[in-house]
Amino acid sequence: MPEPVKEAEAHADAYGQLAQPLRLPKMAEVVAEYIRRDIVTGVLGEGMSLPPAAVLIARFGVSKPTIREALRILESETLIEVRRGAGGARIRLPNEAAAGRAVGILLQLNRTTLADVSQARITFEPPLAALLARSWDGDDMAELRDGIERSRRTLSDPVAFAVSQADFHQLVVKLAGNQTLTLMARLLNEVIRRHETAVNKDPEHDPLRVAALQEHEAFVELVAERRDADAEAFWRDHLRTNAENLLSASGPHTVLDLYNDIQAHQELRLRL
């Protein structure tokens, strides 16, 4: 058995190797956490007003500057909207589109390429397509066919068609039933959607739109027949084709923050 003194010294050494001492949270962070918890658990819902500052001060036993700082924290997290001088703070829950824009900014800051984003989609969407083929019900199939019909109606409108295609990809993931991956897909689709919209402004891509619609139709038939392995392989090939078409227009190494350059390039081609 180790000697008590040596064992105590070993524990002391281990704690002495901590990189830095623990930091106690500021009172504003504590107040923000309490309010955040009420928002997440539904005690405070979308559009509801927070109590006046005087009420919050009395409830938490803190100063007015602390309350202001707590509200700034929540506002930076897009959990509240502060209307200064006109009604105080209201609950404003974040949505997937806003989160997608934030993810897009982070990808830009990391100099992420479209090829990288496309590879991520190719990695996780096909297994979900197979899961959908195994688990769909009548309502799911009705939604898939409605999605196909929306794309068909927008075939002559390049921008609307690009949106409908992104929506269909999101629908496939959503109907597979995994909420976490559904959110991840939405975040990536918000990035891809912007670039596909720019690319699809080129009328030369009309045959590509027709081909994309036909591939979606073929995929739905595989799902309807519950051919999960075939549906997974087909969806993977479809995503690769999508990536090739997108990258051929924007360049394989195009960084996401060059979106405006892509758009300008397409507009220049239209004028030539």
Task: Please provide a written account of the structure.
The chain is built from 12 helices and 2 strands. The protein has 272 residues and is mainly alpha-helical. It folds into 2 domains: 4-91, Arc Repressor Mutant, subunit A (Orthogonal Bundle); 97-271, GntR ligand-binding domain-like (Four Helix Bundle (Hemerythrin (Met), subunit A), Up-down Bundle), CATH 1.20.120.530. Strands 1-2 form a two-stranded antiparallel ribbon. The termini are far apart. Residues 257-270 have low confidence and may be disordered.
Could you outline the blueprint of secondary structure elements for this entry?
Blueprint (H helix, E strand, L loop, with lengths): L3 H13 L10 H14 L12 H8 L3 H13 L3 E4 L4 E4 L4 H14 L4 H22 L2 H16 L4 H19 L2 H21 L6 H19 L3 H23 L8 H13 L1
**pLDDT average, as an integer?**
81
Look at the structure and name the CATH superfamily of the largest domain: GntR ligand-binding domain-like
What proportion of the residues is helical, as a percent range? over 70%
- SS class: mainly alpha
The radius of gyration computed from the alpha-carbon positions, rounded to a whole number of angstroms, is 25 Å
Give the percentage of residues in beta strands: under 5%
CATH class membership of the largest domain: Mainly Alpha
Oligomer: single chain
Which runs of at least 5 residues are low in confidence (pLDDT < 50)?
A: 257-270
Number of structural domains: 2
Distance between the termini: 85 Å
Largest sheet: 2 strands, antiparallel
The helix tally amounts to: 12
Task: Compute the number of strand runs.
Answer: 2
- Identify the overall geometry: elongated
The CATH topology of the largest domain is Four Helix Bundle (Hemerythrin (Met), subunit A)
CATH architectural grouping of the largest domain: Up-down Bundle
Strand order of the largest sheet: 1-2
The SSE order reads: HHHHEEHHHHHHHH
